[in-house]
Amino acid sequence: MTTHALTFLERYVDRCLNARFAATAVIAFITVVMTVLAAGVDIRTVFEDLLPRSHPYVKVQHQFEKTFGGANVVTIMLEVEEGDIFRQPVLKKVQEVTQGLQQVDGVNQYQIISLASKKLREIRGTTDSIESRPVMWPDVPATEAGILALKEAVIRTPLVYGPYVSRDLKAALVTVDFYPDRVDYNKIFTQIRQITEKVEGDGVSVSMAGEPILFGWVAHYLPETLHIFIVTVAALILLLYLIARTWRGTFLPLLAGLVSAAWALGFARLAGFNLDPLVVVIAFLITARAISHSVQLVTRFDDEIAGGSPTPFAAARESMLQLFKPGMLGVVADAGCMLVVALTPIPLLDKVALIGTVWVLTIAISACVLTPLLLSWTKTQPRRAHRFDLGRHLDVVLNAATAVVTSRAGYVVLGVAIALFVVSGIYALQIRVGDVDPGSPILWQHSEYNRNAAAINQQFQGADRMQVVFAANKPNGIKSPAVLGSIADLQSYMDAQPEVGGSASMADVLPIVKSVLREGNPRYAELGADEHENGELLYLLSSNAEPGDMARFIDAKAQYAAITFNFRDHKGETIRTAIARVKVFVERHPIAEGQYLLAGGVIGVLAAVNEVIFSGQVEAIALALLVLVLCCAVAYRSLTAGVFFMVPVVLSNTITFSYMALMGIGMNISTLPVAALGIGLGVDYSFYIVDAIKEELGRHGDLNRAIVSSLRTAGRGVLVTALTLTTAVTLWMSSSLRFQAEMGVLMAIWLMVSAVSALFLMPALVQILRPRFIVNQTAFVGGSAQLAHA
Q: Strand order in 171-176's β-sheet?
């Protein structure tokens, strides 16, 4: 550090400590205000936050979701244990669910479809006309003959038998969609569960799937999440208490984390941001950074006291002065790595990036300033809080690190690191974008939601939908035989994909009408020969239909038509294959009458998200690394420093990504911000170790002695923080939310690899490479360095 910079820093530290009463009072006042604001933060998932801005699939979704249905479809299956559903008590349960859904908040009344709704119709021919009438509406048949007639009608109606009544006749399906601007997952989940609980039992089981149900489960587990958070904080207190053996070493780091949390959540409230339940893990990760920085200061303070510092004020001054640079460097690097997440054009990630950046920056006050201010009032020699001295166990690790990095074994450490990097790097390249397993990766595979989704997918065509829209060049263009033929060909082509359970479009409906006109002769189940014939068939079908009955297939002007595909899973590979197949079909079968628009439904939305993440993950990680290099280059006035500090980052991230690939954890909207923040997380410990080496080397010029001293001081803080936080985050593995449990494991891996790298690899690299930004103006003789001032 230059004399000018040192003088500026000394003035800043002195002003903070000389005005410690006023500074502490200001921080306390702001914390109280922000805590009050933080208490009002809205914790919920907002659907629009999940959609990538300006993505063509999302534009199609927005344009047609009120007509053809959107991405918030809920699928409800009623299944009997014995016999079939064609019994009056079971059919009444289907009717009760259908009618109950009309009262759910935000429901689109025209998108409630079931055996008991007006939307499912049987097409019959009479001597006078074509008759389209509801299969079972408004009442359940009261007689056995009526129920038998209903059963026969269902079996001969292909748009009902299979899509809404299972092939074995043991299950019935109810689907419902919601207006996107009125979606409230918490209310929808609660209200639909109340409806289904009333009909479950008496040999009938109910299964539910869909985004509102999924995120409803996430909100359902929010109390458990908060409970785990509290237990984790309690575990942190206990571990700090056992290791630090002082009250200041226990509560000051915790206080730093709580102050940062209050300021960040208060900012979120002022900005009008909601807090998604899934980002609680990120919140804990950032809080862990505040605790880590504070632990370093407390550890350095204790070392200053043990080294003969005359007063706590002097010890606090020296601690703040020496650790301010690496502490601020870590804060700025973390904040920069978090901010690059905002470059991914998804509103949720924008909010996470902004709140996360502010949260990280608050550490500059809560840990780097508040902790030394409070330390300046503590006792010089505090009484030990308990008799158990765990320090000797820490010394075993530190002694091992010292012995290794100051000997030839340092080359072994470097060789092991290179081998780990190569092997983990190969596996890390196999990480996949999107969901890896069937069901939702947010919940465990054995969870009620994923079991229900699997049951629905086994009995029916699939709970996840994708809508491809054909946009004709003019009104009534859909009636063209070329258009309808192309739609039918697309359906046949896509149905060959194993994950596609079935599809539906106007090309399925009109052949039924034509067949009915010929007394049900299947030979005539074909499209009309020209546009006029198709128009007549459509008129016959819609003339006695209710308003909105044809809306899920075609718009009022017959210019847009929806082709709905049902999928049995929404794995990333399934979605990419589906989108690619549609594009291949369109390319190979161009049609002059219009164009195909991709893609609506939950599959279309997830496809957009996956494409954005796939294109942005490399960019985000590269930019995060660039931020790190620039921060180090500015702090140490050397580009070599930036490259040097990339070593622990790259190693910790390749190991973590390889674990994600091996365990089937995909890169998605939830894991991307954790991955970006992990880049900053991987280097913080190294800042403290290397800066301590540089500081000690400047005092006496002996490199081995400098390394030993840094491991005894900064290394102890690194070890205390890593052990404490790693042990605490393992508590997240008990979460009912698989995502939180997996992110807990990832955090533990990042913390431990970063700590091991800081204690073993980085000192070994300093010993072997002797970079000039650390040993500048130094001439080496043997294993030591003698200062050679000009």
A: 171-176, 74-80, 204-209
Pick from 44, 73, 71: nearest CA to 57: 71
pLDDT of residue 493: 93
Distance (Å, rounded) from C-alpha 713 to C-alpha 688?
Answer: 10
CB atoms near residue 704 (< 10 Å): 16
Pinpoint the alpha helices (H) of 200-346.
Answer: 211-220, 222-244, 247-271, 280-306, 312-339
**Contact assessment for residue 433 and residue 666, using Cβ atoms and an 8 Å cutoff:** yes
DSSP 302-333: HHHHHTT-SSHHHHHHHHHHHHHHHHHHHHHH
Tens-place pLDDT, residues 6-41: 577 888 888 889 999 999 999 999 999 999 999 888
What is the distance of C-alpha 307 from the center of its chain?
47
Amino acid at 524: Y
Cβ proximity of 566 and 503 under 8 Å = yes
Alpha carbons 205 and 459: distance in angstroms, whole number: 13
DSSP 28-53: HHHHHHHHHHHTT--B---GGGGSPT
Residues written for the chain: 790
Do 517 and 495 contact (CB within 8 A), yes or no?
Answer: no
Q: 405: which 2 tokens?
A: 């990095």
Name the 3-class secondary structure at 437: coil
Q: Token pair for residue 603?
A: 């599959």
Closest to 714 in 3D by CA, of 341, 328, 297? 297
Q: Which value, to the nearest 10 degrees, does the dihedral of the CA atoms of residues 187, 444, 425, 672 take?
A: 10
Residue with tokens 């995502």: 739
Assess contact for 613 and 669: CB atoms under 8 A. yes
The 10 Å Cβ neighbour count of residue 786 is 12
Cα separations in angstroms, 528 against 129, 132, 236, 474, 481: 18, 19, 72, 19, 7
Q: Give CA–CA dist 82/726, Å, rounded.
A: 51
Helix axes 738-756, 280-306, angle to 10 degrees: 30
466: tokens are 């994708």
Question: Which helix H or strand E contains 775, and what residues bound it?
Answer: helix 772-775
What is the SS3 assignment for 185?
Answer: helix
Helix (H) / strand (E) element for 471: namely strand 464-472
| Rounded-to-integer distance, Cα 745 and Cα 728, Å | 11
Query: What is the Cα 387 distance to its own chain's centre?
Result: 44
Which residues lie across from 91 on neighbouring strands?
none
Q: Map tokens 């290791």 to a residue.
A: 243
pLDDT tens digits, 734-755: 888 888 888 888 888 888 888 8
Integer angstrom CA distances of residue 555 from 475, 491, 670, 686, 712 = 10, 19, 36, 61, 74
Phi and psi at residue 504, to the nearest 5°? -150, 140
Side chain identity, residue 378 = T
**137: helix, strand or coil:** coil
Listed in sequence order, the residues at least 6 apart from 261 whose beta carbon sits closer than 8 Å to its beta carbon are 38, 283, 287, 359
3-state secondary structure 61-120: HHHHHHHHCCCCCEEEEEEECCCCCCCHHHHHHHHHHHHHHCCCCCECHHHCECCCCCCC
Using 70 as the pLDDT threshold, list the residues of the chain that sit under it: 1-6, 125-131, 380-391, 519-520, 543-549, 616-618, 670, 672, 674-682, 776-790
Provide the whole-model pTM. Answer: 0.81
Which of 370, 388, 380, 383 shows the shortest CA–CA distance to 252? 370
Residues sharing a CB contact under 8 Å with residue 230, sequence separation 6 or more, in sequence order: none
Secondary structure class of 502 (helix, strand, coil): strand
Determine how many CB atoms are found less than 10 A away from the CB of residue 288.
23
Largest CA distance in the chain: 111
Q: Which 8-state DSSP code applies to residue 732?
A: G
Instruction: Identify whether the C-beta of residue 13 lies closer than 8 Å to the C-beta of residue 321.
Output: yes
